[in-house]
Structures are given as C-alpha cells and as structure tokens.
Amino acid sequence: MSNHTVITVGNFDGVHRGHQAMLRRARDLAERHDAEVVAVTFSDHPMTLLRPKSAPPMLTQRGQAFEILRDGWADRVDVLPLDVDLLKLAPEQFILRMVDQFAPVGWIEGVNFRFGRHRKGDVDTLRQFGAQHGFEVETVDLQTVTLRDKTQAEVSSSLIRWLVGYGRMADATLCLGRPFTLRGTVVHGEERGRMIGVPTANLDCGPQALPGEGVYGGYALADGAVHPAAISIGVKPTFHGHDLTCEVHLFDFDGDLYGRTIDVQVLRWIREQQTFVGIDVLAAQIQRDLKAIRRYHELERMDPNRTILQGQATA
C-alpha cells in the first residue's frame, strides 16, 4: 500500500459524471506519484444536521455510493462521521485535518468546490495551503451532457434529482453515466397484485429519491439473477390511497423476498398513474404494461450483465 495519497472530498451523491471526472483526474495524478486515490466523504449529507427539513433526498443510499466509489474509481473510501464539530471547522482547519489524516500529494476538486464553516473555503484556499503543505491542487470543469430534448446541461446532483422527479430516466442515465438504481427493503403491502396474478415487491427505499409517479420498465436483482421488472410508483389512485409507494414486479421470478434488500434499475417511463373504474380494468391495463415492458427489453436488447450493482459507472 502506498504511503502517498491523492484525495478528493465530497458528498458524491449519485457518483455522477462530474464526480467521475474528478476521480479520473485523481487517478492520473496518483499514477504520476505512485499514490492511492482516496475518496473522502461523509456519513450523511451535511444538510441533515444544518437544516434537516431542507435535506434533499439522496440519489444513492450511502452504502450504494461507497460501493460505486470503491468499484473501479477509488482505491479507498474514507468516511468522515458527520457531526457539529466537523461542520464548525474553518476552511484552514479542515485542510489541516486532511493533511494530518491523509498526507496528500494531490487534491482534486470541481471548480465550484466550497468547504469549511459557512462554506468560506474555495479552490483558491486549497491552492494557498497546498503550496504551504506540499500537495498539488487540480480542478475539474463542470461536465455537460446533451439531454434527449437537445438541451445542454451541466451535470449536478440537483439536476439529476429534478430529472428523476419528473420521470426522465433516460436523461438521468446520461447524467449519472449508468442507470438510476433504487435500493430498498421488501416490506409487506396490501398484496393486491398477488390477487390479480401480478405479485409485486413493495420497496421501502428510506431517504432515497423516488422517480415521479408513473409506471416504468427496468431491471431488478434477486437471488443473484437479473430480472426484467415493471415498477409502479404512486399512491394507488384506484384504491384511493394517500401514501406514496414503490412496487416492483419481477418477470419470471417466483420466490419470497420479504425482509430482503434488492436493487432496481429504473430505465424507462411507460405511462402516468391513472384511476381505473374497477380491478378488472386495472388488471387489463397492467397486462398491457407488462407486454410493453417486455417488448421494450426485447427491442433495446439490453444486456443485463452490465446492470445492477456492479457498482462501476460506465462512460
């Protein structure tokens, strides 16, 4: 293990293309110095302490983000416990803590990086202290993508949350560099799907952002196998529901998933949620949805081996 490190610090929510660009730059610098790439992140989003009610939903569960970072991007992921003392550190104090803990030969960040108490530190602060403490500072420009509507957009976690919230999963995939993946625990529901011959896994995704209400096509990983999946997100308007739920039907799967954690890639919006006049009409629409989703997978010739939870984002 090298005694030298190149670090990059951030929340890494989503580990999107912007984060990936920083990690690639860190890898290049690390190779020049025979050093390790260390992604330094936090146990929680800082907003959960600063303004809990304003904390954004996460694109990735923290464990997901750590897995993605470790799989091909960083040699190590170091997680700083988020507490009031950490948030109170002045920029220069935070830098000194990083120097003491990691002895970096390099530090890579985006051009808009801010840190320290009241976010007073920036990349100029980093460069000043880098000259004093012997580490190089390199910055990476914001990454841009062309969305499906031909709009040029700068990639950010905020943009991706907006896209996911409006069900624009193809655009979210473009920004993430891989499909948006829900991770949740299968919990007991009302089992109405089983009654009409389409059993679903009710997914509790905790603080993770859910796509906008609608029906989607994607993939789910269960028992080590990847299954095409139909995903329904909504309040079950036909049954006058009020609570937002995420239900997943796994094609060609017969098993008990209760209490287990599964991952579901949400790839394509199929239709909006609707209120149906009865269960028979709903059941007929569900069959049409399943047919459309299966046809979608056949036409797209999706390769399930590149999906879920291999962790590494693809360019």
According to CATH, the homologous superfamily of the largest domain is HUPs
| Rounded radius of gyration (Å) | 22 Å
Shape: elongated
* CATH fold node name of the largest domain: Rossmann fold
**What is the succession of H and E elements?**
EHEHHEHHEHEEEHHEHEEEEEH
Looking at the overall shape, the CATH architecture of the largest domain is: 3-Layer(aba) Sandwich
Low-confidence stretches: 303-315
Main β-sheet, spatial strand arrangement: 8-9-12-11-10-13
Largest sheet, in brief, is: 6 strands, antiparallel, barrel
Number of strands: 13
Termini separation comes to 28 Å
CATH class of the largest domain: Alpha Beta
Number of helices: 10
Mean pLDDT equals: 88
Strand content: 25-35%
| Overall SS class | alpha/beta
- How much helical structure, as a percent, in the residues? 25-40%
The total domain count is 2
Explained architecture:
- With 315 residues, the chain is an alpha/beta fold.
- It has two domains: 5-142, HUPs (Rossmann fold); 179-306, Riboflavin kinase-like (Elongation Factor Tu (Ef-tu), domain 3, Beta Barrel), CATH 2.40.30.30.
- 32% of the residues lie in helices and 26% in strands.
- It has a six-stranded antiparallel barrel with strand order 8-9-12-11-10-13. The chain has a five-stranded parallel β-sheet with strand order 3-2-1-4-5, with helices on both faces. It has a two-stranded antiparallel ribbon with strand order 6-7.
- Strand 6 (144-146) and strand 7 (152-154) form a beta hairpin.
- It starts with a strand and ends in a 15-residue tail after the last helix.
